[in-house]
Amino acid sequence: MGRSYHTIDSTSPPPPESPSVEDRRAAIAELGEALRTLVEQAAASESPADELRRAAALVREATIPVGKQQRTRGQIPSADDLLGGVRMHNPVCGDGSAIAPPLRVEVVEGKAVGTCTLGLVYEGPPMYAHGGISALLLDQILGYATSVAGHPGMTVRLDTQYRAPVPLRTPLRLAAEVVGVDGRKVTARATITTESEPDAVLVEATGLFVALRSDQSERLFGEALHPDASNPAAAHD
Ligand SMILES: CCCCCCCCCC(=O)SCCNC(=O)CCNC(=O)[C@H](O)C(C)(C)COP(=O)(O)OP(=O)(O)OC[C@H]1O[C@@H](n2cnc3c(N)ncnc32)[C@H](O)[C@@H]1OP(=O)(O)O
């Protein structure tokens, strides 16, 4: 079983001169930025049908070089560093993700603090974010808060209260912190506000996270974490 993260055919050798991880990350981020511009402009587009069809043909053509070397479901992206927290395609924070705002998160006085601006592509009610997008952002920053507090786990419960709609194209601020640890169960709370009115909570959430036992971790992620093991990782798409 090859360890190639570069091709859909795991028996193929890796490219003779692989570009550096840093260069691939920069290229992935550049593509992500272009994709985010595309999806936002598509969501806001009032262009005539012939222009939209021309764009669709161009996008189909652009898909060809991107699709040449694909990883499988069981392969971690070669540009990622799981232990270092680098997830280039994370759908909330990933620089390479077409669907990530992306949310930028840092730790400020023990709290995870995130900033982002949501475009029209995230619209639910006119002018405001879809409620599922708010939950997505909150789940991410809650998970980040539990990880930086030394209690990484998986979300088993997310209670979300929508107090006011979240405006699009408006700088937002998220904040999260751990409020309780009970064995393997970790509770954290998070809020979304606008940057200009940080005291007016728009959405708040409480998340319950469970730290995995080693057998649970192995059952769920063993295939991805041990690519050289005898399981048929590359068979999964
Ligand atoms: C820096 C990096 C930042 C990364 C941020 C990423 C954020 C994104 C986070 C996610 O989105 S994770 C993906 C969404 N979550 C999942 O897919 C998890 C699906 N759930 C599971 O796979 C299992 O529930 C899990 C392996 C996590 C736990 O297994 P079990 O459900 O068998 O629970 P377990 O027996 O280990 O129970 C541990 C404790 O948690 C409790 N528990 C489990 N699920 C619960 C629940 N839903 N509500 C309340 N309590 C729950 C359970 O009762 C027990 O309590 P006690 O110890 O007091 O007995």
Automatic annotation (TrEMBL):
It is found in: Cell projection, Ruffle membrane; Cytoplasm; Membrane. Keywords: Apoptosis, Cell membrane, Cell projection, Cytoplasm, Fatty acid metabolism, Hydrolase, Lipid metabolism, Membrane, Transit peptide. Its EC number is 3.1.2.2. It comes from the Bacteria. Gene3D superfamilies: Hotdog Thioesterase (3.10.129.10). InterPro entries: HotDog_dom_sf, THEM4/THEM5_acyl-CoA_thioest, Thioestr_dom. It is a peripheral membrane protein. The keyword Transit peptide applies. Residues 129-197 form the Thioesterase domain. It holds the Pfam family 4HBT. Residues 1-23 are annotated as: Disordered. It catalyses: hexadecanoyl-CoA + H2O = hexadecanoate + CoA + H(+); (9Z)-octadecenoyl-CoA + H2O = (9Z)-octadecenoate + CoA + H(+); (5Z,8Z,11Z,14Z)-eicosatetraenoyl-CoA + H2O = (5Z,8Z,11Z,14Z)-eicosatetraenoate + CoA + H(+); decanoyl-CoA + H2O = decanoate + CoA + H(+). Belongs to the THEM4/THEM5 thioesterase family. This is Acyl-coenzyme A thioesterase THEM4. It comes from Phytohabitans aurantiacus.
